DNA sequence: ACAGTAATACCTCAATTGAGGGATTTGAAC
DNA sequence: GTTCAAATCCCTCAATTGAGGTATTACTGT
């Protein structure tokens, strides 16, 4: 049975070309094509597509919103972003919204067709440069001494970030309670914070520990 | 010029097959092959490979350690994991260690060759099921009310997690200082913690906020 | 009408923390 | 040989917090 495809793309010529190309092959069936995401929820529910091709830059609701609408309406529909944007900001917003693939518009048609098959088979097609960005995001950029913390200060901060009190930290490190407080007093200005709670928030959200 | 490849794989038959296959094509050159990662640092420095094929399950230092050794010795060398393991644990350890690709051993040889070209061109080849896992990891599994927090309690926790004091939170929400303290006292048992610092640690590390 | 929950607000007391000091020892750098 | 940073320890005082309460209002579901 043909793969049911729905297209969200505001460029009419491109949208028509894609539709024409995909319809010319028995393997694919374009069941709907739209210049924006306003009706994304209802058409997804009505047409039950296997795959949605989604542009990002569209008038009204953009494609990032669109991913969420399609995914919420019908999680089984695989969403492939199809866009010119290559920046981390939009990329990760789409991924968090539930996109199953991310292709740049420079992708040649045969690769696009292959990606549609791949996403239906449970894959996650991505343009090479996108895949590289995604993998790079896992390498925690060790903020190596961005705040010039000493070895001991880092240890204290790590334990603090587990929610431990000064007394418990002292026990863990086998040093005195007052020493821990001294370290904390030295840590705060280095992190540009004023109290332990801010320090924890900063340490955890900036992956210092 | 041929792509310089180094192979870490403890299965001798597989290692020899790969070497033989790759050497049969002028495009590729296997400059070294090893049954473990003990010498990974020194051979990477000595042989200056473009690509390292890395198994995970090897005697001695395993492949996860191996990725780190190769990447630390020579960041330009692209490392492709080549393994049977499909579990999130090992996968994300490899990605954090700096792997540039992740192929399952069931990958057919022609896809493996394509992956080597792709990684040299700055891509990040992944088996489809791996790519899907990676993308899924971005969908923050909304821990929807795992701890049964009320709307207001969630708001208080969100502000607390920015490091705000009770007094500041009261100001932000336009409620009294004592009310904030009441909410906090109700939040702690729900999160199974005993103080604000533990609450922040839990909220941030479990993505509650 | 009544029970339950969420949200609001106040009180007290002991413990912890932040802020401000000062002080010693050790090992590396110049 | 002196200087410097890191690590250790102690003191005080005011502010914040945790823990234990109590109490009112408003809305929801029965």
Automatic annotation (TrEMBL), chains A, B:
UniProt modified residues of type 4-aspartylphosphate: 55
Domain HTH luxR-type as annotated: residue spans: 142-207
UniProt key word RNA-binding: no
InterPro entries from the UniProt entry: CheY-like_superfamily, NreC/VraR/RcsB-like_REC, Sig_transdc_resp-reg_C-effctor, Sig_transdc_resp-reg_receiver, Tscrpt_reg_LuxR_C, WalR-like
Stretch forming the signal peptide: none
Record-annotated Response regulatory domain positions: 4-120
Annotated keywords: DNA-binding, Phosphoprotein
Highest taxon above the source species: Bacteria
Gene3D superfamilies per the UniProt record, alphabetical: 3.40.50.2300
This protein's record includes keyword DNA-binding: yes
Protein name from the UniProt record: Response regulator transcription factor
Organism annotation: Terrimonas ginsenosidimutans
Organism ancestry: Bacteria, Pseudomonadati, Bacteroidota, Chitinophagia, Chitinophagales
